[in-house]
Amino acid sequence: MKWIKSTLALFGVLSLCVMFIFALQDAPTDENFEKKLINEYNVYALQVPNGLEFAGEAVPLHNPDIYERMDRELLVNTYWQSNGFLMFKRAKKYFPIIEPILVKHGIPDDFKYLAVIESGLTNARSPAGASGVWQIMKATGREFGLEVNNNVDERYNLELATEVACDYLKKSKERLGSWTLAAAGYNAGMAGMSRRLKEQDVTSYYDLLLGEETGRYVFRIIALKEILSNPDKYGFNFRDKDLYSHVPTYKVEVDTAVTDFASFAKGFGINYKILKIHNPWLREPKLNNASGKKYLIDIPHEGYYQTN
How far apart are CA 28 and CA 306, in angstroms? Predict the structure, then answer.
């Protein structure tokens, strides 16, 4: 037994020596620290592209202030990789719904990126109460014809909300004079932008001194447009099958009250959860509809979901 103990002791000493040698090899000396920085992880400065524009209006990158603000948004959104990937995935799913509505209203295609920075293409709700993909305030939604109450909130209906966003942007462009200012006005309000332009005696968004949020707003839109339009250039690698796909639906007209959407959904071979995924504007498990209004409810085509 004695020799076994001696052998184990010797083995322990040798193990400690080996561990010490490896520890010395991995010690953070200046030399190997720099080597790891070079070989294991790289962060690159980005070149701000020449000729950036929004809705056909040039970004004045010759201005050093404008250049630095554009550079900031490109860096922030390129190196926030997880968020960037989600934007690529959701864009594949929702842009095909948004794009034809923009075309119908004569709104430049670049405004789909406004929806990206407003909500991340989700049905978000802000602390101020702005809701849906287009982050429409309750009063604005009602002003432009949306039904907004506890039972039905059409700000969460992507098609209807996009129509309202288009109407608002056209009105803003007419009042403020450019698409860039109309985009900024979507964030700060038409009246707010008009007041700032008058107070500072300028006519361009890029000449205004603005608060942090509105001051970054248009640059963020342009940065997302640039990155989402050029994934390889900014280091995003994926296949088309890695992106989210739109589930095709058909519309069912309802002009009466619905007392139980769970039972209603089962009649179409789906469950309440799936019904809500495709109709988030239905805010309660029932539809009051005392007025007999006609609603269009989206039902996914058979085979896309399985229910127990």
Answer: 54
Answer yes or no: do 187 and 109 share one domain.
yes
Structural element, H or E, at residue 295: strand 295-300
Confidence of residue 30 (pLDDT cuts 50, 70, 90): low
Cα angle at 137 between 115 and 176, to 5 degrees? Answer: 70
112 pLDDT band, cuts 50/70/90, is very high
Compute the CA torsion angle 134, 135, 139, 145 (nearest 10 deg).
Answer: 20
Could you tell me if residue 308 is inside a domain? no
Task: Give the model confidence (pLDDT) of 132-186 as tens digits.
Answer: 999 999 999 999 999 999 999 999 999 999 999 999 999 999 999 999 999 999 9
Domain that includes residue 278, residue range: 249-300
Contact between residue 155 and residue 288 where contact means Cβ atoms under 8 Å apart: no
In a domain, 80, yes or no: yes
Report d(CA 77, CA 222) in Å as an integer. 11
CB-CB neighbours of 234 under 10 Å: 18
